[in-house]
Amino acid sequence: MECSLFFRIGLLVLVALIATPFVSAATVQVTGPTVISSPGMYVLAQDITTSQNPAISIKCSNVIFDGNGHTINGVDASNSFGIQVNNGGTPLTGVTVKNVKLTDWYDGIYFKGVNAGRIESVTATSNVRAGISLRTANDNVISGCTANENGQGMYIWSECSRNRIESCTMSSNGEMGLWLASTGRTASGIVYDSTANQVIGNTATGNRRMGLYVDFSHGNVLSNNHVTSNSAFGIFLDYSTRTRIESNTVSGGSEQAIYLYDADSTEIIGNTVSGAGDYGIWISSSSGNTLRSNVITQNGKGGIVLNGEETIPANDNTVVSNTVRDNGDVGIYLCRSSGNTIANNLFSNPVNARYGGSCGPSTWSGQQLAGTSIAGGPAMGGNYWGAPSGNGFSDTTPDANGDGICDRSYAINSANIDLLPLARASGAPATVTTTAIPTTTVPSMTVTELPPVPQAPFPAAHALPCTIEAEQFDVGGEGVAYGDYEPANQGTNTVLRPGEGVDIDTGGGITNVAYTRDGEYLEYSVDVNAAGNFVLVLRAANPDPAAKAVKVYLDGAPAGQVSVGPTGSWTVYQEFAGSAPLQLSQGRHVVKLAFEGVSRINLDRLAFSTVDAPTVAPTTMATPPPILLPTPTVSPTTGPELQTTSLPPLPGGAGSPLDPDNDGLYQDVNGNGRTDFADVTLLFNNLGEVASTYPAPVFDFNVNGRIDYSDVIVLYGGL
After folding, report:
1. Class of CATH domain 640-717
2. The domain 466-486+502-610 belongs to what CATH superfamily?
3. CA torsion, ordered 327, 331, 332, 333, to nearest 10 deg
4. Which stretches in the chain have pLDDT values below 70?
5. Tens digits of per-residue pLDDT, 36-84?
6. CA 476, 479, 481, 484: dihedral to nearest 10 degrees?
């Protein structure tokens, strides 16, 4: 009996989930230029050389195009695309392009109006404008790709937000390895419409202008990238604020390794910066930036520059805990820059600090506090002023009482004095004769450590059962009530919890904890009046296609997890129940949510309910929440939509659908008493009927609140 074309195409996606060394007969073989307008899996069977534009046109959602290692070659025609994914004004979702080589096009791959798609293991070479280009495209992942010898390696521009570019190589491109940009200047002014993109773990090397270029784009993350030997700049931020540049290796180039222009509130943290022809890090006409824990060495002219223009100063920057040594001339240079905080840095250069232009005073030391300094001494205060020859101020100035602070202050100029310069970790040699310029002697200080703030619920006690907003994490601070990589709140709401480092956002009427990253955590103290079992439910948004398991700890011991399924957007929230109820005795307990191996979740709130009433009070939501599934140790919920045994048979089924494990999901779709491939086939062939006439929860296998193509894939994966 011959299967329908729709059925045969659909099964291709399911077969793709099995790692087989051959191509199933159910896949659609592509042998030449093709327009794809139906969901399914398409496999390129041979190399293609063509002048047809585009060679492959994808115009619908839920498509996997597998190049199978073949090449699609063009003729360098203007505005031509090897693979174009675009359906005019209708957004597409769930499109994957992988394992293909693209050469001699205007753009090798062009995603426009595509959301939640993937570009994997693609090689794009010798394309006129860009190897890979995204426009008006959100929440996509570009992973494991190579973009060499194009105009731009990757061009992510105009209304592109929350995309992730990871583990890619961008080399020997004519301009930039990666160009990330908003719409930019228009007739009505500057438009910043690309935000919150992540560029993580990539290599950008040998590009003829810049490695990574961020232009008119805010709130992005550039981390763990290897950016080397690009002709001019390594990383360049232009009119882009609130960027995090973290844990990158940046080296080589004739200009600066990291350059900021009009890029306020940027964090440059934990980078290794070396070998640039000019300066390691140049901050131009930008204020309110943080440079922390960077190693800046062996750059041609110097380490750090804070340089303002006549009308745009470079003020109020924080430069702390950096190692700046062995640079060609100067450690830090300030020009038209005032009000900075520069402390706990190790400087060891021919000239450690120099001023130019008109500058007001900056703060060169903080309060003397006990703790290991960057020089290894027992106190933190100012900076270490060394010299490559070993005879710098901090190298030779005595520390008679061994408190880690030199016995005299250090004058940079008359308005800028380090009152607490750091001493050698072991104290100055007794035989040293000092010849430094006389400066004001600092009276000895008594260091008083403030007692830690005890952990406590915020803003008041939380008696279970109750709902706790995510931003109501405990009082106690970093390392006690929460763990967050950045010391400052990176979100838009800095008023609600002043002084705390948790990233809190407010938008669309919802305040949430945002920018979650692997290794961060939140703690909440709760009070129990009578011992019992409580179900924990998180209301969260997950823009990615995979579920993410948030670990739960109770009083420090593992207590299960909450799997946060895909919600389709950062702003669509759904509710997700924990894997097991929390068994709580009478008294106070601490519940910890740990993002271990988890990132990119927006957390709105936590709800604790008794096992007898595990549902959460209704709220106004962008989409209906999924049904909360009972845990293995709890009696099944008796809601009619989960327990009904009288669902009508699907067309072609043997009987009414059945729920073999009583989990509320009807895996036995055809009602024949077992779960097998026939159930997958029946559900796929009746998706439209199921979505319109059956209760959504019974076939919502991916728990996203609706019946769609992804439920077929999840059901198949569970066989």
Report:
1. mainly alpha
2. Galactose-binding domain-like (2.60.120.260)
3. -70
4. 1-26, 426-453, 612-646, 677, 680-681, 684-685, 687-688, 692, 702, 704-705, 708-714, 716-719
5. 999 999 999 999 999 999 999 999 999 999 999 999 999 999 999 999 9
6. 120
Spatial CA neighbour of 110 closest among 91, 97, 126: 97
Q: What is the identity of the amino acid at 140?
A: N
What pLDDT is stored for residue 715 in this prediction? 73
pLDDT of residue 687: 66
Q: What is the DSSP string of 358-399?
A: S----B-----EES--TTS-SEESS-EEE-TTS-SHHHHS--
The whole-number pLDDT of residue 634 equals: 33
Query: Does residue 15 sit in helix, strand or coil?
Result: helix
| Tokens matching residue 534 | 């409580």
How many Å apart are CA 227 and CA 43, to the nearest integer? 34
Distance (Å, whole) CA 171 – CA 105: 18
Cβ within 8 Å of residue 426, ≥6 positions away? none
Length of the chain: 719
Cα–Cα dist 610/582, whole Å: 10
Q: Is the dihedral of CA 300, 301, 306, 308 positive or negative?
A: negative
Backbone angles phi, psi at 125, to 5 degrees: -135, 140
> Which residues lie across from 594 on neighbouring strands?
521, 551
d(Cα 120, Cα 65) in Å, to the nearest integer? Answer: 10
Residue-by-residue DSSP string for 210-224: EEEEEES-BS-EEES
Q: How far apart are CA 619 and CA 562, in angstroms?
A: 20
Q: 346: part of which helix (H) or strand (E)? A: strand 346-348
| Residue-level pLDDT at 677 | 61
Lookup result for tokens 């979100």: 491
What pLDDT, on the 0 to 100 scale, is given for residue 665? 84
pLDDT at 717: 56
CB 335 within 8 A of CB 355: yes
pLDDT of 496 reads 85
SS (H, E, C) 278-292: CEEEEEECCCCCEEE
Distance of alpha carbon 658 from alpha carbon 660, whole angstroms: 6
- Answering whether pTM is above 0.70, one says no
Domain ranges of the chain: 466-486+502-610, 640-717
SS3 608: strand
Query: In the Cβ-directed half-sphere of 259, how many Cα atoms lie within 13 Å?
Result: 22
Q: What is the predicted pLDDT for the residue at 541?
A: 92
- The whole-number pLDDT of residue 190 equals 74
Q: Among candidates 27, 117, 32, 54, which has minimal Cα distance to 544?
A: 117
- Is beta strand 521-528 parallel, antiparallel or unpaired with respect to 587-594? antiparallel
**At residue 298, what are phi and psi to the nearest 5 degrees?**
55, 40
Helix (H, G, I), strand (E, B) or coil at 640: helix
Q: Can you point out the beta strands (E) in 39-129?
A: 40-44, 48-49, 56-58, 63-66, 71-73, 81-85, 92-93, 95-98, 101-103, 107-112, 114-115, 118-120, 123-125
